[in-house]
Design brief:
CATH class of the largest domain: Alpha Beta
CATH superfamily of the largest domain: Ribonuclease Z/Hydroxyacylglutathione hydrolase-like
Length: 437
């Protein structure tokens, strides 16, 4: 293909200019979230060869279905492009691993080839969006990111293009902690189990940003661990994207496709679906009967206590491991608490590597909320727990009020910082206001 793009895997975009130039989030090997996730379909040899032929890789954020260490081990000769994430953790650790890393300044176009240039913007959740100008056409790859303050900027850029494509996480919504239980031990069915139609919502997003076409993206995974297989009912199969938009001026492209920009022609790629084969937690080192050692409990206390925001609303975090409770007391004045029931091996790996988000997204951990939480279900750990632990503390290194103020001031200074006007945006604003200058 002389000029165009392909989509394959979970969130891999391959851009061509007289050959492959750029691939994004190349998850081409191995599993993610301690074996819980695999790609829903195989990566065909042709697209695998295209990824390996690219000079550049762009990685949006640190989750293992986007930053796959098994995959990067086969791609050591590439130049890795990153957004300017506060704290620079991804860049620092990849460089320590021997990778050639370039951090791109927010909002500035960088030329990669004669007809391809890119622009990236990092957000406060340690994710990023990528805009690709490919021969005068626009690809907006927002993967798992919420455009947040970059929304108006994306609108202004898209207005300059007659041909534009949005690649974004959509679907029923299982890319987060869903495995919530009542205090009586009953699972709380997540909203994604309803499998409600969502194409109309995608049309709304396209119109909001002024983009003409949508490619299903960042949603093509399935569950393979026996203790997370229940969540397969919440995953989005590619069949959910069959059909067309109601608006004739908007186009819905196949989840895996090759788009020739010179011919304005989309061709479906039909990779084989992975068979439904389940593996045990033990295959990935997780034994549910293993108990914590005293040194483990000390590590857990040292991990949670410095995240000072937790003390403002949370009485305790309880880790139920091997059937035994291990309570980390944060603030006795608060009634709210959380119990995470989980296996020791993956729990302690997440603590040692400061990747607590990875423990939750695999959806084998059982989460119970205690006390007067305002919500029950998937959003309940937002906006006060998951972002402050997994995003700001683990990835951004911001745990204290002073560190959080510096964190948010840095993003505000870049000019791409805002909150949406919906309920989620209002809750985020309220949670962060005490740390805003």
């Amino acid at each position: 293909m002389d000029l165009g793009f392909e989509t394959i895997g979970n969130a891999t975009l391959i851009c061509h200019d007289k050959g492959p130039v750029l691939a994004t989030d190349p998850w081409i090997r191995g599993a993610a979230y301690f074996g819980s996730w695999i790609t829903s379909h195989e990566i065909p040899d042709e697209q695998l060869a295209h990824v390996k032929a690219c000079k550049y890789l762009w990685i949006s954020h640190g989750h293992p279905d986007h930053l796959s260490h098994d995959s990067l081990a086969e791609l050591k000769d590439k130049e890795i492009l990153l957004a300017d994430h506060y704290g620079g953790r991804i860049a620092r650790e990849l460089r320590a691993g021997g990778f050639d890393v370039t951090v791109l300044k927010d909002g500035v176009w960088t030329q990669l080839s004669e007809r391809i240039r890119v622009l990236t913007i990092g957000d406060i959740q340690q994710d990023a969006i990528l805009l690709v100008d490919i021969g005068g056409r626009l690809i907006a790859n927002t993967n798992d990111a919420m455009p947040l303050g970059a929304g108006p900027f994306l609108q202004s850029v898209a207005a300059n293009y007659t041909e534009s494509f949005l690649l974004a996480l959509t679907g029923y919504g299982d890319a987060d902690m869903l495995n919530f239980f009542t205090e009586d031990g009953e699972r709380i069915p997540p909203a994604s189990m309803k499998r409600e139609p969502f194409l109309e919502g995608i049309e709304t997003h396209l119109r909001h940003f002024g983009i003409k076409a949508y490619v299903p993206f960042s949603s093509q995974h399935k569950y393979q661990r026996t203790d997370s297989s229940w969540a397969e009912a919440c995953a989005t199969p590619i069949e959910a994207y069959e059909g067309t938009f109601r608006s004739p001026d908007l186009e819905l492209l196949p989840p895996f496709c090759r788009y020739d920009l010179l011919k304005a022609e989309a061709t479906r790629i039909d990779p084989p679906a992975r068979p439904k084969v389940y593996v045990t937690p033990e295959d990935f080192g997780d034994h549910w009967s293993d108990e914590l050692e005293p040194a483990d409990v000390a590590k857990l206390d040292a991990y949670f206590q410095p995240i000072t925001h937790l003390h403002t609303f949370l009485g305790f975090v309880n880790l139920r491991v091997g059937g035994k409770d291990n309570r980390i007391v944060l603030n006795k004045e608060h009634e709210r608490g959380i119990t995470f029931e989980c296996p020791r091996a993956s729990l302690m790996t997440c603590i040692d590597w400061k990747i607590f988000d990875d423990l939750l997204i695999g959806n084998y951990v059982k989460t119970t909320l205690h006390g007067p939480w305002t919500k029950v279900g998937t959003p309940a750990l937002y906006p006060d727990f998951t972002p402050f632990v997994g995003k700001y503390a683990d990835n951004g290194g911001a745990r204290t009020p002073a560190e959080l103020r510096a964190y948010f001031d840095a993003y505000k200074a870049r000019g791409f910082f805002d909150f949406s006007s919906d309920e989620s945006g209002r809750e985020n604003r309220a949670a962060l206001m005490r740390y805003m200058g």
